[in-house]
Amino acid sequence: MIKRTLVLVGLLLASSCSTYNSIDSFYNAHKDDDQVTAVRVPRFMLSMLGNISPDMKSLIGSTKDLRYMQFPSATPERTKFLNNEMNGITGSSFIEVYRKNDNLKRNVVSIREKKDAVKEILIYNNNTTRGSFLYFNGNFDPVKVRELANKEEFRTLGDGLIDQFNMGTPKIIKEEGQEKTDGN
Question: Does 176 reside within a domain?
Fold first, then answer.
């Protein structure tokens, strides 16, 4: 009986962490890919995000983990691969609150709930040229999340993150076939 209980508890713990690990795995697997922009915002820097709506500020206030990744999706095969990867991450553990499909193009907002609160939000966009995901982990009001999804404010937040984190960041400059960073 004790063994059975331990196995059950182990399975429950593994399944509760599986989404986070899937996001973690996807992020770590692709952050070093060519032409990828990856941003993981430390908790202390979340308050520094300016240029966002008051609704978004209230959402970000309860965020524990915020990640954004933008990646190339230039071929139909790559787009299908990325769409399948995101479908695999959300799988049966997320609830889709918004989805728009246009051939291979995707715009999907998925959430993961626990009791009366939204714990995770995953926004995936792919226009068959570029794909992106925006991931939140925290405690969120489900009504507010639905409202922000309908207004497409998550998309503008992702663009704003890139703009804010690119300011003052050393850029890679290609000169005569060599790569180097500013300041080196």
Answer: no
